Amino acid sequence: MGAKNCPETPRQKMINMMYLVLTAMLALNVAAEVLEAFRVVDASLTQTLSNVDLKNDQIYGAFSSAYLQNPTKVKEWKEKADELKSRSDSLNDNIMKLKERLVLASGGVFLKDLGPDYVLEDNAPIFVNKAGDTLLIKKEDDLNTPSEIMIQQKAAKQLKEQIIAYRDYLASLLDSSSTLRTSIIQDLDTSDPKINLKEGGEKKTWESLRFENKPLIAVITMLSKIQIDVKNAETNVASNLYSQIDASSFKFNKLGAQVIAKSTYVLRGDVFEAQIFLAAEDSTQRPEILVNNRPLEMAGGKGIYKVPAKEVGTFKWGGLIKYKTPEGGYNTYPFEGQYQVGEPSVTISPTKMNVLYVGIPNPVSISVPGIPSENIEVTMTNGRIEKNGGDFLVYPSKTDNTGKATSISVVAKFGNERRPMGSMPFRVKEVPPPVATVGGKNGGNIKKEDFLVEDGIFAELKDFDFDLKFTITGFDITLTGAGGYVKTWSAKSNRFTNEQKEQLKKISVGSIIYIDNITAKGDDGTNRTLSPVSFKIR
């Protein structure tokens, strides 16, 4: 509740005054044990700071070594590491100067100024500056000087601004989603603490919490702790930068020579061409590639090997790759390969039979050895041909029993050149007529009960591999009985009519069932008249 609504009484004012006096008296009498504890902690922090410096020196040394071995690859990351070291050293130096300023302002003196006869007591509080000079701290419990310099003269505010700039710089070197970035922002946090209502709700700043009304030795210890935070952040970011040197490179533990030929099969008169390169290629370090002890022309880190194909046959070739190791020596990796030279040719083969049929799509496989299918052009006479996935479908226009009017021709593309590869003649026939069947039989003896269970007749293409179907469109049934009696019944589909079924029920053993005038229509659109079939009841 505000003072306007609840004014202080004279008694409350007296209590507040006594609290301030008591606080001041306590602050003026800092226990020796507390000062000693701060001294021990600061000494430990100083030693830790020295160890972190050694670790950072090792990381920067690794950068220098890597740069000497491969300047192109390491340059970008070494430049970032150098700037990181410069900014870290600058902030650390400023903190060291601030410590020295505090010690001297509180009466501290350089040990060298005390004369050669001065004997430093054991456990005497000292401070060693950046130049390596030792200062004797005279007033560890000084409360006024640190507050004057850090708060009144705003040295703490300046330090806070330097830490913020350094923290933002480190964050810019890391990915926004990095856990390391989040950790560094937390470790170098300079935000003001939250107001604690239990402690009276007094608002404190980052500066006042750490440096106001604190003894000198405590302030020095706090500054040492900030130095540790800065150096640890430097270590983590430097290590991250070093790991980025190879982050975009392939990791491998085995090197091997690789040969990639445009084709291992070439035609006489053409040129065989291949690329030879070291697996896990490093674009910043070029290998030397030799074939027949002669260096190859290099393009994009790969050797280009060309040799004219003058003769038909199989030819072997090989060489070695020389690759520089990080130690400065060379490793060699042999390789070998072979290629074939053949006469121009083409392979054209029907997928299912050695003839083509009118009225249906005929699948045909066409290939040219060593030539991808997309570089093949196919044409035909007596019909048309269409691409169907990796094969072709051929649609002949008319029959050609001799194969003189039907041929398929192939042209292959070699770069910008089109070259005829050959052609092949084909015979063209009509699709063979189907046969009529009842219960899968094309005539012969049959039991009456077996015949009666069938609903009609069907057209089947015997021994024909194409997926083509015929449907019966009509037929006649003629029955012969005792005394030579003959009568015929007709159907207009493939199903037995009710009248036909009734007559079939009356037949006896020895009767003849004669089916003729059978017509059928195929998927190819043709109408066929099928051969008659007959069955004898047994």
Please name the defining characteristics of this protein:
538 residues, alpha+beta, Immunoglobulin-like, 4 domains, six-stranded mixed β-sheet, five-stranded mixed β-sheet, 29 strands, 33% helix, 30% strand, elongated, disordered N terminus
How would you summarize the topology of this molecule?
Blueprint: H1 10-28, H2 32-69, H3 71-105, E1 109-110, E2 126-128, E3 134-136, H4 144-152, H5 155-172, H6 179-187, H7 206-211, H8 216-243, E4 257-261, E5 265-267, E6 271-278, E7 288-291, E8 294-295, E9 297-299, E10 302-308, E11 313-324, E12 330-342, E13 347-350, E14 356-357, E15 362-367, E16 376-380, E17 383-388, E18 391-396, E19 407-414, E20 417-425, E21 428-429, E22 435-437, E23 444-446, H9 448-452, E24 458-460, E25 470-480, E26 486-491, H10 498-505, E27 512-522, E28 527-530, E29 533-537
Helix pairs in contact: 2-3, 2-8, 3-5, 3-8, 5-6
Q: What is the C-alpha radius of gyration, as a whole number of Å?
A: 50 Å
**Main sheet makeup:** 6 strands, mixed
Please count the helical segments. 10
Residue share in helix:
25-40%
Number of domains: 4
Strand content: 25-35%
How many DSSP-defined strands?
A: 29
Instruction: State the end-to-end distance.
Output: 119 Å
- The best one-word shape is elongated
